[in-house]
Amino acid sequence: MASTGGVRNHRLPEKAYQENFADIKPGLSSYQANLESSRCLYCQDAPCIAACPTGINIPSFINRIASDNSDGAAQVILEENILGGSCARVCPTEVLCEQACVRNYSPECQPVMIGRLQRYAIDHRQKNRHPFTRADQTGRSVAVIGAGPAGLACAHRLARCGHDITIFDAHSKPGGLNEYGIAAYKLVENYAQQEINFILEVGGINLKTGCRLDLDRQLKDLTIEFDAVFLGIGLGSARTLGLSGEQTDGVEEALGAIETVRQTESLPDLSVGSKVVVIGGGNTAIDIACQMRRLGANEVTIAYRRSLENMSATPHEQAFALNNGVRILPWFKPISFETEAGQLHGVRFVKTAHDKAGQLIDTNKYEVIPADKVYKAIGQSFTSDCFSSDNLARSQNGKIRVDDHFKTSMGNVWAGGDCVDKGEDLTVHAVQHGKRAAQAIDQFLQKLEV
Ligand code: SF4
Questions:
Q1: Whose CA is nearest to atom 1 of ligand 1?
Q2: Dist. CA 340–CA 396, nearest whole Å
Q3: Which residue is closest in CA terms to ligand 1's atom 4?
């Protein structure tokens, strides 16, 4: 990370912005990819395949890289995961395929760099032809609601089968979290949009952005107008803490701030706090904390109410935050936002602990952490009231209930991604949901009478 020395008014020299927001994990060179691919043992019952949520045949694509066949390697990846390029960049591979890699147990204790090899294969495939051809048109139509990873994966798979797809998305750009919710240095050079352009190359997909549907009113109409509907609508509403002072200027949603950083034309013009507190323990907390440090915030603290082990951010992500100069305080639960004359100046925390039964309890120790900016990264909840009058069964947490084939309780409606009750929230999970739903929708459409 470039030095924040010489900060004027919490701003950095121009060059520092470029360096701080450059690709954090640049692609491998051909030499590096060749060398790394030679470390794969091509295990017969490869545990890395089982650990990949989309089931990519990892030894098969690595073998193709080793024989200088990047196109073939990319084909193997994209067959299972059409968003394999962005997943290679944002997946926590250290707790998925790379954790399962048997090389972890060899003397060097270092897994094969599967994620970086996957990126190499996708980046080095021939760009002048789409790897899949669309089947003859079937005359069947599918509405896909939401142009995030689940919707895009579903749309591409169904378009390949010859169905006509219309994707509706409320945002002005497609991509969902890949476009709006991931730290800027993880997906550089407009990668989310490049990947969508590639997905659309298959043909048969009509993308309608800036199109917010009133699903409570329109879902039934869509089920009549289209032969099938897929809902990949994400979550929708940020959780609140319900604490005094939460409405004060300077207390913001982390996801909104990440979107602002992702969409800005000028990083130096962004408003950046001097003393920043981030509340939460997931990847969103890490992403906003590190981005604020890289934008020149003097002090950034992540406060989390449980232990470091309980954080959903992986140890790798936590280490990344520490390396960016972010302080992480576990066992800190916010109890109020401290204000004076309407100005935010800190967050009051109570320190927590586990009692003998392992329940989280408040202690009698309190601490105020000074802050002129606070980001809440405490997750989102599903906006379930958008289906109040439709007969769409939901689970106890309000999310859409689906069966093993991602079919909802409505006749021709499937759903996937964060809006369903599968307890899986990574981009790669959303891709798998969209793919599996598309397989089920295709079977359903094939059985429809002409
Ligand atoms: Fe190769 Fe590791 Fe997978 Fe074995 S577990 S096939 S060594 S990547």
A1: 40
A2: 40
A3: 43
Task: State in Å: Cα 42 to ligand 1 middle.
Answer: 6
- Domains of the chain, with CATH numbers? 25-123 (1.10.1060.10), 141-236+381-446 (3.50.50.60), 240-376 (3.50.50.60)
CA-closest candidate to residue 70, choices 435, 23, 193, 78? 78
Cα of 98 from ligand 1 centre, angstroms:
8
What's the CA-to-centroid distance between 112 and ligand 1, angstroms? 7
Residue 381 has pLDDT above 60, yes or no: yes
Cβ atoms < 10 Å from Cβ of 296? 24
Instruction: Name which residue sits closest to atom 2 of ligand 1, judged by CA.
Output: 101
The per-residue pLDDT for range 152-185, each reduced to its tens digit, is 999 999 999 999 999 999 999 999 999 999 999 9
Q: How many C-beta atoms surround the C-beta of residue 1 within 10 A?
A: 14
State if pTM tops 0.85.
yes
Per-residue pLDDT reduced to its tens digit, 176-217:
999 999 999 999 999 999 999 999 999 999 999 999 888 888
Distance 316 CA to ligand 1 centre (A): 20
